[in-house]
C-alpha cells in the first residue's frame, strides 16, 4: 500500500491512487501463485488485469505496474463509470514504458510520440478462459461477475486453491446458471464455473457426447477463472530508459505513411528479445522512437502528379512517392524544407521525451540515431550543418583564383579590383543589417542534443560525400567526415547485396577499399569476439590476373565482388601481423617463421617483383610461390622502405552475413528493407549502446 500511494505523476499520468486491497485477508495457492481470498468478495484491483489489442490480433496483458494504475484510474470514475462527471477529471494513464497513454473513459490507448489513425482498444479482464488466460468480452464478463456476487458473495471458498487442475464435474448438477446471448454459464460450485456455447452445432455435439457417457462440462464446456493468474504489483514495472534511439526513415514514406512506425515497432520488438537474452542484468533499457518527417511536408503540392502521364500509372505513382524524394533533396528549392522538417521533428520528440521523463537529462541519458537510406544523408547534413551554398561559394573562390593566375589586360585587372571592392562593401552592409534586425538568411539547423552513435543502414551517404568532393586523407580519424565533437561514433551497417548501400571507410583512408568490412555476428553466436578486438583482414581482389600457389587452387579463392555465402577466406591474418607495412600488398602464403610471410607487389612498369625484407631468413625462397595481385602503389620513403600504413581509430563499415540459402538476386530486391526485423542488427545496436553504459558505470565506480 505504501508503494501504491507515492506514484509520481510523470509515470502514472496523474493517476496516483493507493492500493486499498493490500490489507485484505488472503490465502496463497500451494504452488505460491496469485493470492486467493477466503470468502467471495469483490475483485481487488490487483486481481483485475487490463489488456490491449493491436492489429486485430489476440489480447495482450499490460504488465502489472500498468494494469494496476489503469484499474485505479478506472475506479476513480466512480459508480457512473465513463459517463460520470468524474470522467473528465481522470487523467490518462501512461503505459508501455511511456510510449502510450490509456484513456479509461473511452477505453482506448494511443501513442504519445507519433500520430496513429487507428486507436488501440483496451479491455478490463475479470473472468478468464482456462489455459490461455484470455479475457472474456467485457460485457459478458460484467454480467457473470454481477451474477457471481449476487449469488455467492460472502460464501466460504473451497480449501483447494489449485486452479491449474480442472477436476471433472461428472454427476454434478449446476447449482446456478446464467443465460447470455449466445452462451450460458453454469456454476457447479463456487469455484467451478463453466461456459457453454448455445450454437446449434454445439447443442448436437453436447447431446451426442452426453449419451455416450461423457460429462456435460468436459464435452463442450470451457472452464472459467475469476481473477487473473498473476497478481498485479507495482514492482512489475519496466526498467528506466537510459538511452533513446531516434529511427529516421528514408524515401517512400509518402507511399505508406505508417511504415516507419511499423518498422520501428519491429526493431523495438527485436531489441526486446535481445535485451531479455543478453542484457537482462542491466537495470536500464534502450527505447526506440520513430521519426516521421515526410508526411507534414507540402513540397510541390500536386504539381508532379498533374504532369504524370496516365500510362502505367501505378508504377509512376510508386516512383513519385519514393524515388522522387531523392530529386526533392537535390533540388535547391525543396532541400531546406526536407532538412527543416526532419530537424524540427527530432527536436520536438526530444523535448517531449524530456518533459515526460525529467530525470533523463539529470542522469546523463544518451541519444543515438538510426537512419535508413536517404534519411542517413539528411541526418548527416543536419548534424554538420552542410549547405550547398557553401559549395557554390567555394566554386566561385576557385574561379577567382584561376582568374588571378592567368594573364590579364589592364582593363580586366581594373574591373576585377572594382568587383572585389564591391563585394567587400556588400559584406559590410549585410553585417550592419544583421546587427539591426534578425538575420533572414536561414542558419544551419541545430539539434538540441549531442548524438552518441549515428547508425547508418543501407546508406548512400558515401556517394553523396564523394560527389561533394570528399577525398581520402592521411589520418585514420572519423573526424575526416564527421567530427567526434558532433557525434561520438559513426557506424555504417549494410547487407552485402543492398544496391543502395556504399562503404564509408575508403573515403577516410583509401587503402581500406582492399580491406573487408567487419562481419556482424549472428544473433545466436556463442561467445562472439568483441568488435574492437576483430583485426582488419584483406579482401581478395579479382579484377586483375592472379597467380596462385600449388597448394591453393583457383576454385577455392573467393570473390569479394560476389560476397560468397561461406565465411570469406582472407589473404593475411591482419594488418598488425604484417607490421602495418604492406596493407595494400597481396599476401604470399608460405611456411616462414610465423607460419605466414607477406610480400607486396605493386603496380609498376617493371616486371620484377619488389619484395619486403622480412627478417633473417629473407623472402627469396618464398618469392617463387608468392601470390601476385595488382594493387595501387604505396609511397616510398627516402630509405627505400615502405612507409607505415595508417589504421582507422575505429572501424566504421559493418556487413551483415548472408543467409545460407539466400538468393543473391532476390536479396538485391529485398535486402534494402531487411534491417528492421533483423535480430543480428538489433544485437549489434544494443552491443554498442550497452557497452557505453557499462563503460560509464565502471568509470563512475572508479571515481
Automatic annotation (TrEMBL):
User: InterPro entries from the entry?
Assistant: DDHD_dom (IPR004177), PA-PLA1 (IPR058055)
Q: Write down the Pfam families for this protein, in alphabetical order.
A: DDHD (PF02862)
Q: Which spans does this entry mark as compositional bias, Polar residues?
A: 604-613, 628-638
- Superkingdom of source: Eukaryota
Biased-composition ranges, Basic and acidic residues, are 614-626
Q: Where is this region: Disordered?
A: 541-562, 604-638
Q: What is this protein called?
A: DDHD1 Phospholipase
Species name: Nyctiprogne leucopyga
Tell me the gene name: Ddhd1
Amino acid at each position: 500500500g505504501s508503494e501504491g500511494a507515492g506514484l509520481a505523476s510523470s509515470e502514472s499520468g496523474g493517476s496516483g491512487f493507493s492500493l486499498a486491497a493490500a490489507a485484505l485477508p488472503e490465502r496463497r495457492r500451494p504452488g505460491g501463485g496469485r493470492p486467493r481470498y477466503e470468502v467471495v468478495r469483490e475483485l481487488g484491483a490487483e486481481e483485475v488485469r487490463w489488456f490491449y489489442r493491436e492489429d486485430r490480433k489476440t489480447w495482450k496483458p499490460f504488465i502489472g505496474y500498468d494494469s494496476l494504475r489503469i484499474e485505479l484510474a478506472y475506479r476513480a470514475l466512480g459508480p457512473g463509470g465513463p459517463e460520470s462527471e468524474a470522467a473528465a477529471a481522470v487523467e490518462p494513464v501512461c503505459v508501455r514504458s511511456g510510449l502510450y497513454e490509456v484513456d479509461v473513459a473511452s477505453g482506448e490507448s494511443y501513442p504519445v510520440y507519433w500520430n496513429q489513425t487507428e486507436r488501440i482498444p483496451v479491455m478490463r479482464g475479470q473472468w478468464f478462459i482456462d489455459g490461455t488466460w484470455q479475457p472474456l468480452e467485457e460485457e459478458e464478463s460484467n454480467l457473470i461477475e454481477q451474477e457471481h456476487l449476487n449469488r455467492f458473495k460472502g460464501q466460504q471458498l473451497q480449501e483447494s486453491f489449485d486452479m491449474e487442475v480442472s477436476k471433472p464435474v461428472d454427476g454434478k448438477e449446476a447449482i446456478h446458471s446464467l443465460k447470455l446471448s449466445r452462451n450460458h454459464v453454469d456454476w457447479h460450485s463456487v469455484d467451478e464455473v463453466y461456459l457453454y456455447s448455445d450454437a446449434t452445432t454445439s447443442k448436437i455435439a453436447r447431446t451426442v457426447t452426453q449419451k455416450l457417457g461423457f460429462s456435460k462440462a468436459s464435452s463442450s464446456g470451457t472452464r472459467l477463472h475469476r481473477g487473473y493468474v498473476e497478481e498485479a504489483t507495482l514492482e512489475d514495472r519496466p526498467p528506466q530508459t537510459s538511452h533513446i534511439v531516434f529511427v529516421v526513415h528514408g524515401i517512400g514514406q509518402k507511399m505508406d505513411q505508417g511504415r516507419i512506425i511499423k518498422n520501428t515497432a519491429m526493431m523495438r520488438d527485436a531489441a526486446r528479445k535481445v535485451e531479455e537474452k543478453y542484457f537482462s542484468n542491466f537495470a536500464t533499457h534502450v527505447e526506440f522512437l520513430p521519426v516521421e518527417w515526410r508526411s507534414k511536408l507540402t513540397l510541390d503540392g500536386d504539381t508532379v502528379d498533374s504532369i504524370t502521364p496516365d500510362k502505367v500509372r501505378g508504377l509512376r505513382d510508386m516512383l513519385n512517392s519514393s524515388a522522387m524524394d531523392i530529386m526533392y533533396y537535390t533540388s535547391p528549392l525543396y532541400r531546406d524544407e526536407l532538412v527543416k522538417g526532419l530537424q524540427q521533428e527530432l527536436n520536438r520528440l526530444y523535448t517531449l521525451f524530456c518533459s515526460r521523463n525529467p530525470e533523463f537529462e539529470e542522469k546523463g541519458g544518451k541519444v543515438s540515431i538510426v537512419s535508413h537510406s536517404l534519411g542517413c544523408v539528411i541526418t548527416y547534413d543536419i548534424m554538420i550543418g552542410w549547405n550547398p551554398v557553401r559549395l557554390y561559394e567555394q566554386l566561385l573562390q576557385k574561379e577567382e583564383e584561376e582568374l588571378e593566375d592567368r594573364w590579364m589586360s589592364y582593363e580586366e585587372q581594373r574591373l576585377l579590383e572594382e568587383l572585389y571592392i564591391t563585394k567587400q562593401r556588400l559584406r559590410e552592409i549585410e553585417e550592419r543589417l544583421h546587427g539591426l534586425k534578425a538575420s533572414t538568411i536561414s542558419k544551419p539547423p541545430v539539434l538540441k542534443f549531442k548524438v552518441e552513435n549515428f547508425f547508418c543502414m543501407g546508406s548512400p551517404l558515401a556517394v553523396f560525400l564523394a560527389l561533394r568532393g570528399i577525398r581520402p586523407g592521411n589520418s585514420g580519424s572519423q573526424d575526416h567526415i564527421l567530427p567526434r565533437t558532433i557525434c561520438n561514433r559513426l557506424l555504417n551497417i549494410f547487407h552485402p547485396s543492398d544496391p543502395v548501400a556504399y562503404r564509408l571507410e575508403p573515403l577516410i583512408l583509401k587503402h581500406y577499399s582492399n580491406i573487408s568490412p567487419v562481419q556482424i555476428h549472428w544473433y545466436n553466436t556463442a561467445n562472439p569476439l568483441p568488435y574492437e578486438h576483430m583485426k582488419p583482414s584483406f579482401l581478395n581482389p579479382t579484377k586483375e590476373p592472379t597467380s596462385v600457389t600449388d597448394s591453393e587452387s583457383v576454385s577455392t579463392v573467393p570473390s569479394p565482388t560476389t560476397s560468397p555465402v561461406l565465411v570469406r577466406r582472407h589473404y593475411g591474418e591482419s594488418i598488425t601481423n604484417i607490421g602495418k607495412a604492406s596493407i595494400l600488398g597481396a599476401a604470399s602464403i608460405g611456411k616462414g617463421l610465423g607460419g605466414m610471410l607477406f610480400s607486396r607487389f605493386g603496380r609498376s612498369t617493371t616486371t620484377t617483383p619488389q619484395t619486403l625484407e622480412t627478417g633473417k631468413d629473407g623472402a627469396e625462397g618464398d618469392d617463387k610461390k608468392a601470390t601476385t595481385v595488382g594493387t595501387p602503389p604505396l609511397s616510398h620513403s627516402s630509405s627505400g622502405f615502405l612507409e607505415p600504413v595508417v589504421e582507422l581509430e575505429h572501424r566504421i563499415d559493418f556487413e551483415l552475413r548472408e543467409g545460407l540459402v539466400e538468393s543473391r538476386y532476390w536479396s538485391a530486391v529485398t535486402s534494402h528493407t531487411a534491417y528492421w526485423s533483423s535480430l543480428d542488427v538489433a544485437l549489434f545496436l544494443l552491443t554498442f549502446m550497452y557497452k557505453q553504459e557499462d563503460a560509464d558505470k565502471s568509470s563512475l565506480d572508479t571515481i
